[in-house]
Amino acid sequence: MATVTGEEDIYVRYYVGHVGKFGHEFLEFEFRPDGKLRYANSSNYKNDTLIRKEVYVSPSLIAELKRIVSESEVMKEDDKLWPVPDRVGQQELEIVMGDEHISFTTAKIGSLVDVQDSKDPEGLRVFYYLIQDLKCLVFSLISLHFKIKPI
Q1: Is the predicted pLDDT of residue 5 greater than 80, yes or no?
Q2: Number of DSSP helices (H) and strands (E) in the chain, helices first
Q3: What global pTM score does this model have?
Q4: Which of 28, 66, 132, 146 could form an S-S bond across to 15 if both were Cys, CB 3.0 to 4.6 Å?
């Protein structure tokens, strides 16, 4: 992997989706070590189409991504007690940072009530808030670069 900041590389991929009456609907984004952000949002509701965008972000943004992931301490978590994906949908988070690699899969989380009612509320809360932060970052970047509404 190419190094953006001269320190350890980072790769982050997030997916959330389900198959329902409008087909396979999902949101996915990925930050690559070379600074490429890939974004895809597929919704067939009211005949919406697939939105795909790619943009390169600066080394300072990659450094901020590393800080967000590091400070969340999500790399210390384990998803074995988290809700399993169901018909409502699933979400996946994969992070490679330096020599560490984690991959989580869990059910969609509707609200903090779902987090509190889980068998591992503290670990799932870390995941939930990190995902909120990452989505906010990605939606801001996509909105700034492409003048579209990502949601």
Answers
A1: no
A2: 3, 6
A3: 0.86
A4: 28
